[in-house]
Design brief:
This protein is mainly alpha-helical and about 600 residues long. The protein is built from 20 helices and 9 strands. A 3-stranded mixed β-sheet has the order 5-4-7, with no helix packed on it. Strands 1-6 form a two-stranded antiparallel sheet. Strands 2-3 form a two-stranded antiparallel sheet. Strand 2 and strand 3 form a beta hairpin. Helix 5 crosses helix 6 (about 295-310), helix 10 packs antiparallel against helix 14 and helix 13 packs antiparallel against helix 15. It is globular. The relative contact order is 0.06. Belongs to the concentrative nucleoside transporter (CNT) (TC 2.A.41) family. One of its GO terms (molecular function) is nucleoside:sodium symporter activity.
Length: about 600
C-alpha cells in the first residue's frame, strides 16, 4: 500500500509524470508569504483549487514563493476539492527538501474552510487551523525566500560598509579612529536595542532573585558600601594630597561651601543626603577620570579637538555672507555665526532622536543614583546640551505638576551649565574645548546636589520614576525643515547675545569711569569694578582652588560673571590666556597680566 492520508487509499497512478515547473504552478490570489523563522505555515487557501488537482497523483507536491511575495503550490495525493467533508487530519504535516543529505522542514496547515493565506505563525492551537498531511518538494532553500527586499537591500549596504570600514582601518588605523569610535557607538546602540527587545524580560526575570535579595539586605548593605567608598576616598586623598599639600586648601573650601549652603537651606532637617553625596561623588569621580587618568584625559582632549574642527566649518558660511576680512576682525561675524551653526546641528540631532536617547539615559543614571525626580533629572542633563530656556521645554507637559523643589532644581541646572551653542562661542575665544566640555558634564550632578541641599524636597513628587516620561519632540516633517528651524530659532539667541554684550560692556565702562573719577579724588584713579571684585571675592577664589597670587584675577572674573555677564568674563579670561601665550611678562608694575595656572 502506498503512503497517503490515514484511513484513505490514494488513487492509483495511471502514468508517470514529471514534476511541473514553478512557473506552471497555480497561484493563490492574494496570498502573502510572511516567514518568521525556519518553519512555514500554509493555509488551505494558499493551495490551488480543485482544477489543479484533478489528475490522480502520488502523495507529494511543491510549494514555491515568487519574487512578488505570492504563494503558489501543487499538492498530489489529496482528493479535491478541500472541504469540511474531508476525513480527520493527521497530527502534523512537513515540507521536506530532499536535496543532498540536508533536509529543511516547514509545517503546512489547512483549515476546514476555504481561504488563501500563507502565514509565518504556528499552525497548531491557533483558531481553526489543523495540520493535515505530508507534502514533500525539492530545493526548498532556493524556492522559499525568508528575507524581504528591504532586508536584502540592508544586508547589501551593511556588507559594503563593512568592506569600507576594513579598508579604512587597514590603510591607516589612526586616521580612521573617529570612524572606529562612531561605528562602535552605533553597534553598541544596535546591540542594546536588540538585547532589550528580545531578551530584556528574560534578563530581568533572571536577576529578579538577586534584586529581591539585595532589597532585603539594603538597609544595612548601603551603610557598608558607603563606609567602603568613604575609606577608599580618604585613602586616595591622603596618598594624593601628601605630594601636593596645596590641594588641601581647595578640599577645605569644598567643605566650607557645602556647610554654608546647608546653613542657608530652606528645610535643613529635610535634606536628602543621598542626593547630595551622590551628586558630589559623581562630580568627583568624573573629575578623577577626566583630569587624573590618561585614558580620560586623552578621550576628552580628542573630543575637544574634534568639536573645534567641527565648529571651524562655520567659516564656510560666515565668510560667504560677511567676507573673509570681517570674520577675522569682528567678534560679531566670527563667534556669533558659530551659535547659528551649532543650533542647526542640535536641531537635526533632535529630529533624528539622538539627543532624546542620550538625555534619557543620562537622566536615568542620575535618577537611580541620586533618587531625584525624573523631570528635574531630565532638565539638568538637558542643560549640558541646550540652554536654560530650551531645557525646560523638554519637560513642558509636566511643569504644571512639579513641586517647588523640582522647579528650583531646573533653574539651578540652567545657571550651572553651558549651553552647547554658547559653548561654541566660548571656544572661539580660545578657551580650551575639552575643559569646557568636562566642566559642563561635571557640573550637572553637582548642580542637582546643591539644589537639593538649598531647597530640599518636602512635597510628594508625581515623577519619581522615568516610566511614562516622554521628551517633547518637534513637529518637523523632514531633516531639512529641522535644520532650517534650528537656524531660525538661533537668530533670537544671537541677537540676545549681541545686545547684552553691547549693553553690559557699555555699563561696565561707565561704572569704571565713575569709580575712577571718585577714586581720583583720594588719589586712587585705578579704582574700578574689577578691582573691587578682586578684593571682595578673593577669599572665595582662593577656596575654589586658585593660588593666592592668582586669586585676585580669578576673583575679578568671578565678579564679572556674577554681576555682569559670563560672555564678558570669558572674554577677559581669553585675554589673560593670550597674554601668557604671547610671552608677555607676568607682572606689569603692580598689575598681573596673566594667570599662572592657565594652559
Amino acid at each position: 500500500m502506498r503512503p497517503g492520508l490515514p484511513g484513505q487509499e490514494p488513487p492509483p497512478r495511471t502514468r508517470p509524470r514529471s514534476p511541473p515547473s514553478p512557473d506552471s504552478l497555480p497561484e493563490a490570489p492574494g496570498a502573502v508569504f510572511k516567514p518568521a523563522s525556519s518553519a512555514f505555515y500554509l493555509a488551505p487557501a494558499a493551495l490551488p483549487d480543485a482544477a489543479g488537482l484533478q489528475e490522480p497523483a502520488a502523495p507529494g507536491g511543491r510549494l514555491s514563493v515568487r519574487d512578488d511575495g505570492r504563494c503558489s503550490s501543487q499538492l498530489r495525493g489529496f482528493p479535491p476539492p478541500f472541504s469540511p467533508s474531508l476525513p480527520p487530519p493527521i497530527p502534523a504535516l512537513s515540507l521536506c527538501s530532499g536535496q543532498g543529505t540536508q533536509k529543511k522542514k516547514a509545517r503546512v496547515a489547512i483549515p476546514d474552510v476555504a481561504g488563501v493565506q500563507c502565514r509565518g505563525e504556528p499552525a497548531i492551537g491557533r483558531g481553526r487551523w489543523r495540520p493535515v498531511g505530508h507534502v514533500s518538494y525539492s530545493n526548498l532553500g532556493t524556492v522559499i525566500r525568508t528575507g524581504s527586499p528591504e532586508q536584502t537591500s540592508l544586508m547589501k549596504k551593511d556588507t559594503r560598509y563593512l568592506a569600507y570600514f576594513i579598508a579604512a582601518c587597514y590603510l591607516d588605523y589612526h586616521r580612521a579612529l573617529a570612524l572606529i569610535i562612531l561605528t562602535s557607538l552605533a553597534l553598541a546602540f544596535l546591540a542594546y536595542s536588540i538585547v532589550k527587545k528580545c531578551l530584556g524580560a528574560k534578563i530581568i526575570q533572571m536577576f529578579s532573585p538577586c534584586r529581591k535579595c539585595c532589597e532585603k539586605a539594603w538597609p544595612w548593605l548601603k551603610w557598608v558600601l558607603c563606609a567602603i567608598l568613604l575609606i577608599a576616598l580618604i585613602t586616595w586623598l591622603v596618598l594624593d594630597v601628601s605630594q601636593r599639600k596645596e590641594q588641601l586648601v581647595s578640599l577645605g573650601g569644598f567643605c566650607v561651601l557645602v556647610f554654608l549652603l546647608f546653613l542657608f537651606s530652606k528645610h535643613p532637617m529635610a535634606v536628602s543626603w543621598r542626593a547630595v553625596f551622590w551628586g558630589l561623588g559623581l562630580q568627583f569621580v568624573l573629575g578623577i577620570f577626566i583630569i587624573r587618568t590618561e585614558p580620560g584625559f586623552q578621550a576628552f582632549q580628542w573630543l575637544g579637538n574634534q568639536i573645534q574642527i567641527f565648529l571651524n566649518y562655520t567659516t564656510a558660511g560666515s565668510s560667504f555672507v560677511f567676507g573673509e576680512k570681517l570674520i577675522q576682525e569682528s567678534f560679531a561675524f566670527q563667534a556669533l555665526p558659530i551659535v547659528i551653526f551649532f543650533s542647526c546641528v542640535m536641531s537635526i540631532l533632535y529630529y533624528l532622536g539622538v539627543m532624546q536617547f542620550v538625555i534619557l539615559k543620562l537622566s536615568w543614571l542620575l535618577q537611580i543614583t541620586m533618587g531625584t525626580a525624573a523631570t528635574e533629572s531630565l532638565s539638568v542633563v538637558g542643560n549640558i546640551f541646550v540652554g536654560m530656556t530650551e531645557a525646560p521645554l523638554l519637560i513642558r507637559p509636566y511643569l504644571g505638576d512639579m513641586t517647588r523643589s523640582e522647579v528650583h532644581a531646573v533653574m539651578t541646572g540652567g545657571f550651572a551649565t553651558i549651553a552647547g551653542s554658547v559653548m561654541g562661542a566660548y571656544i572661539s575665544f580660545g578657551i580650551d574645548a575639552s575643559s569646557l566640555i568636562a566642566a559642563s558634564v561635571m557640573a550637572a550632578p553637582c548642580a542637582l546636589a546643591m539644589a537639593k541641599l538649598v531647597y530640599p524636597e518636602v512635597e510628594t513628587s508625581k515623577f519619581q520614576s522615568c516610566e511614562g516620561i516622554k521628551i517633547a519632540c518637534g513637529e518637523e516633517k523632514n531633516i531639512l525643515e529641522a535644520a532650517g528651524n534650528g537656524a531660525s530659532v538661533s537668530v533670537g539667541l544671537v541677537a540676545n547675545i549681541a545686545a547684552n554684550l553691547i549693553a553690559f560692556l557699555a555699563v561696565l565702562a561707565f561704572i569704571n569711569a565713575a569709580l575712577s573719577w571718585l577714586g581720583g579724588m583720594v588719589n586712587l584713579p585705578q579704582l574700578s569694578f574689577q578691582l573691587i571684585c578682586s578684593y571682595v571675592l578673593m577669599p572665595l577664589a582662593f577656596l575654589l582652588g586658585a593660588s593666592w597670587e592668582d586669586a585676585s584675577l580669578a576673583a575679578e572674573m568671578v565678579g564679572i560673571k556674577f554681576f555682569l555677564n559670563e560672555f564678558v568674563a570669558y572674554q577677559q579670561l581669553s585675554t589673560y590666556k593670550n597674554n601668557r601665550l604671547m610671552g608677555l611678562p607676568e607682572w606689569d608694575g603692580s598689575q598681573k597680566q596673566w594667570i599662572s595656572f592657565l594652559t
